[in-house]
Amino acid sequence: MVNASLAYEILLYINSFYFGLFATCELGTLILKSVLIIEKYDVEKDPTKLGQDYGVLLGLFIIEAARLILGRNGSLSERDVPVMFSVLLTVPSIVGVLYLLIWQVVVLRIEYIWCTLMLALQTLEFIFASMFVVTMCKGPSYD
């Protein structure tokens, strides 16, 4: 059987570094798009599109940081409540990454790669966190 706690902790550790890279690259790309590519897509007519992209990105940064902190604290102390909140925060985080991947004003090819890697990490974390919570909520067996 797979040690879900160890796999979950490794994935959180990897994602903590990847999230920093992802956040920096996405923010830089969005600033670049707002300066250079904006004229081509008529954002001056509807500036809320660009504001919505910035809002989703800021919300994703906050949710993902909270999710990683709760997951690390819960996994290291082997408590199931912070991990359950981390699992619940995975859903809006995945929706935010899907927004950046599909519904953004302009999606660059490099963003497809970044967002796909982020979705893969989040999906694996969701699976192993769910396994970890199930093993933590289950009573001890004295076989």
Write down the domain tally: 1
Helix proportion of residues, in percent? over 70%
β-strand number: 0
Unreliable sequence segments: none
Amino- and carboxy-terminal Cα gap: 16 Å
Element order, helices and strands? HHHH
Largest sheet: none
> What's the rounded overall pLDDT mean?
87
Look at the helices and sheets and give the structural class: mainly alpha
GO biological process, one term: non-motile cilium assembly
Keywords: Membrane, Transmembrane, Transmembrane helix
Pfam family, one: Transmemb_17
InterPro entries: Uncharacterised_TM-17
Short note summarizing the structure:
The chain is mainly alpha-helical. The chain is built from 4 helices and no strands. The mean pLDDT is 87.
Descriptive notes:
By secondary structure, the protein is mainly alpha-helical. It has one domain (4-135). 82% of the residues lie in helices and 0% in strands. The chain has four helices and no strands. It has helices spanning 4-37, 48-77, 80-103, 109-137. The radius of gyration is 18 Å and the shape is elongated.
Which key phrases capture this entry?
143 residues, elongated, 4 helices, mainly alpha, 82% helix
Fold topology:
Elements: H1 4-37, H2 48-77, H3 80-103, H4 109-137
Helix pairs in contact: 1-2, 1-4, 2-3, 3-4
